[in-house]
Amino acid sequence: MSAIKWSLLFLLVIFPFFLLTGDYMAHNTFASDADSATRDAAQSELKANIVKNSLRDADVYKDNCVVQYNPTTTQTVFNQSLNRNVVQDSSGDKGYITAAEGTGIAGAEIHTLSTPYPTGTPGFQAGGHGNSPPMLAIRSNVVRNTFSYGLLSHFSPAGQLSPYDVIQTQKIAILEEK
Amino acid sequence: MRKICFFSALLLLGVLNFFFSYVPTVLADTPIDITNPPGVTTLPSPNIDYETTGSSPTDTLTKIDYWVSSSAPTSSIRYKTLEYYIVLHNSDGTVSKVFSFQPTVSIPSSGTVIDEFIVTAQNLIDAGFTQNDLTLQNLSQVGLSATIEIYNDSTGDVLATFGDQNSIPSTIDPIIQQTAGNIGFGSTDINDMESRYVDDILTVIPPPVTPKPKPTSTSDTCSLQVNSPTTLTEDNVPDYWEYTYGTPDSFGNCITNQVWEPYQEELRMSITSPDPATVKAGQGTSVTVTTWYENNDPTAWNGSSYNTGVPTVTMSGPNTDDWQSYKLNQTRMTANMVLQSTQVYTDPNFHGMTYTSGCLGNPPIQVGYNVPVVEQTWVIPYARFDNNGWTMSQTPPTDIDNQYVFGGLNRWYFGFDIPDGQTFNLQFLAQGGSTGTMEVCGNDKISIKGSPYDDIVVTTIDPNNPFPGGEPTAWQGFESNITNLAGWFRESGAELQKKLEQWETESLLGKIFTFLHGNVQNGVKSMDSPSPSPSP
Question: Which of A56, B53, B148, B415 could form a disulfide with B59 if both were Cys (CB 3.0 to 4.6 A apart)?
């Protein structure tokens, strides 16, 4: 009886406890990694895509800096910065990124933006000569494979519980000139 | 006995004449230079000339030149000059001194020769003249006269003698023409005899006014001078100004003098220190060049500007946008600077030309004084940047949108890839003047340090409290762009999923409404149908 009791206790309490605790810790670790990758992507997107010529007179016009966003580099930086093993999409990207920008089309998908300056048509830009300084809001969603989510999804009605842990992170990066 | 009495009477008359007439200072032993000036075949007119130490009354006579002609004899009837007299008249016109000398010229065997008698002040002083005798205030007239004897070379008979120290051309010339002409001398010989008599008012000709010396900096070579103004002054204006002034002679007559002097022009330039002198790679610096031009040739001034001014100032500097290429080829670009402003004013310090007309009775005249100065300010051409690079223009570019086209400032730019510590020269050259070749130049030194990227800071912020340390100036008025994203920032994955599903199932009108509504409410709205759960 005691063995059954301990078995039930282990099966119903201790094992799920450790399972959930481990899963929680793994979630936090992945979330921290995604948070860091999202920050890197946002900051890189701003700094790497500054239009050089806008800096020509930045010593005279402090708000002259203009950024031409380039979604390709953002995704690349995010992929490189994310260290954890997450579920990748068919193109090999580790997460799905959307971007928001204060003065333009908020929440617009970064993948739908124009080709990079100067070869393509204008995308959204920020900053420069009395406009809003450059700012970029990025949201990333990464998908973590988890045993507990998969196990639980077997016991849930079809489609009610996803077998994946989707971690969402958002960062707002701004660019300032000293 | 009668003969003795006759000769005694003649001797007595001669002695009495000696004592009762003017007794000149006869100094026959003083040697003077007699030359045959090469190339002189005709008698100069006038055949007397003077040199003085100046034109003021205290200046002195330094030299007297005479030219006399002598022709070869054609018969036995000849003439010879027994004595020459240099006669100085004092200020009231009376003879003050006579300097006599024996002729030492030889009779030419053929043709006519011109002899120049050079009587220096030293000759006169050696002969007993004092320095005071030679001062212009004690002189009014200088003359040459002679005693000429006509004789028969075959018999030795003297046929006629005429002329003494008091003879002047107006009185002796008729005697020569009558006496010599009656004896049978021709016009050549008569002219030769007349050349021994010169009587000229001592119109002391002052030496020409010494032109103003050129300023010291007159090099045409455009030497480079770092950060220092360079001045070039030239008097190469191919024209001269003429002025006339009068000086009174010893008799109070006003003697007119004419002087020519070249016009002068001046070109100066100053260059400001570059602003900034230390440039961050990729950025630019501005320099202002100021030129001053003035010309005292009245024909150069058209009433508002100089025809001979400074049409252009050019500059050259390194083209370092392609740093690797510059390192290989030291590529430089040249551009005309932009004329920013022009001012015209008079320069009281310019090397003016002024003179007084003296005894001519006219008021003093100033020529070329306070001439207009044209001050011009030049700046570096306007810059324009687009995806094709940097171009310069004389007018401000009109298509600057600060998105794809930048610039508009008058600056010289350097490439983004230049390492720290590199130094470059900007060179400036102003050219113009009446000959078009007058030029002045200088340069500025610029060093590179840092990059504009050093000044850029990218940070992540919380939209609920974006600037806990205080709102930066650049963000004033735009903070709502960040705070409007607070709702989007809080959005959980479930809410996002729900919103996306709602977006997928909504009608087109609903999508538009949701999009617009969502933008207003949250500043955030999904525009597409992303798949937050990518297929594994």
Answer: B53
Q: Please check whether residues B183 and B275 belong to one and the same domain.
A: no
Whether residue B298 sits in one domain with residue B175: no
DSSP per position, B420-436 = TT-EEEEEEEEEESTTS
Q: Where are the alpha helices (DSSP H) in B421-492?
A: 480-483, 486-490
Domain ranges of chain A: 2-174
B227-283 pLDDT per residue, tens: 444 555 555 555 666 666 777 777 777 777 776 666 778 888 889 999 999 999 999
Q: Does the residue B506 lie in any domain?
A: no
Residue B292 lies in a domain: yes
What is the tens place of the pLDDT at every residue in A65-86?
888 777 667 778 888 888 888 7
pTM exceeding the 0.95 threshold for the entire prediction: no
Q: What ipTM does this complex have?
A: 0.79
**Backbone dihedral angles phi then psi of residue B81, each to the nearest 5 degrees:** -95, 115
Indicate if B282 and B186 belong to the same structural domain: no
B22 touching chain A per CB within 8 A:
no
Inter-residue contact B364 to B371 (CB < 8 Å): no
Residue B62 lies in a domain: yes
Q: Find the domain containing B344 and state its range.
A: 264-453
Residues 80-139 of A with CB under 8 A from B: 87-90, 93, 96, 98, 100, 102-103, 105-109, 111-112, 117-118, 122, 125, 128-129, 132-133, 135, 137, 139
What Rg do the C-alpha atoms of chain A give, in angstroms?
A: 22
How many whole angstroms separate alpha carbon B6 and alpha carbon B12? 10
A73: nearest Cα among A47, A108, A103, A107? A47
Distance in Å, alpha carbon of A150 to nearest chain B alpha carbon: 13
Number of domains in chain B: 2
Same domain, B111 and B189: yes
Yes or no: say if A178 and A136 are a contact pair by the CB < 8 Å rule: no
